[in-house]
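This follows on from our talk about sequence and fold. I would like you to pick a protein and set down its sequence and fold. Go ahead and set the record down below:
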Amino acid sequence: MSRWTALLFACAAATAAHAQSYPSKPVRVVVAAATGGPDTLARVVGAQLQQQLGQPFVIENQPGANGIVGAQIVSKAPPDGYTLLVYSSGFVINPAMHKSLPYDTEKDLAAVAFINRNPLVLIGRKTLAPTTLAELIAHMKNTSVTMAHPGSGSSGHLATALFAQEAKVKPVQVPYRGGAPMVQDILGNHVDLLFGTPQQLLPLVAGGQVKAYGFTAKETHAQLPGAASLVGELGPKLEIFYWHALFAPAATPKPVIDKLNAVVQTLLDDTTLMKNWADTGVTPYPPNERSPQAAQALMKSEIARWGEVVRENRIQPAD
């Protein structure tokens, strides 16, 4: 056996031993947000990891710059599985929105597992005249309509741009600093339309406070029986999911990533928890797309996809 072969065997043995004993101390889970969906999901996932792996998974909120602050912290951490990141779909939009980032999205971070994915919901103020998506589009071609979004480069902003592009309408886009203010303004009849998450909007739809016109998925939506699939009506570009995923620094040993991924998969197979999630509009990631390899491939394809949308629509970061 050559010296290099022996060295490779020794490295492989050390990696396997590290994975077998992992984790042997508390794990830091950086959430690239203050509160809301990412934080809630991170705490559910962290509790499952702690229960299954026997060490504390300590949640640390690091908001800022649409998640860039948190992602930078994890990208620079040692690749040993003891610093992880929970981030939303803004992660794959940022490379197109910023000329330079303090990390390389594809090279410095590795996808461990996608946790959930939710379509966006298109709603209108209660007093808006159209009652169906077709009526709405016809109305927008003859009338000036305002569409709110939660900030430049957000999922809601890009969904608004794609909707306008594919429906061949020109709404007046109104940027907000986050989702809560724009929802308050649609309830107050100050804006006409917006895209938001099911968690935000399903209670308002159920309470008759807003009108639901459509959602960005192929499948029917049990909680939106009167709304249309924007994919079915306007084409595949309107298949848009807002998701959350678990990431680790690049070069984290594969056996460690596989161990973390396996625990996340057991969480997503918990029927009681998934029923609770479904009641609030949260959908677990499909079983055939949960492996680290599938997650990494999706991350790469999403970066390319949203880069094209940003360039085509000449979307710029907010000042």
Observations:
- Confidence is low (pLDDT under 50) at residues 5-14.
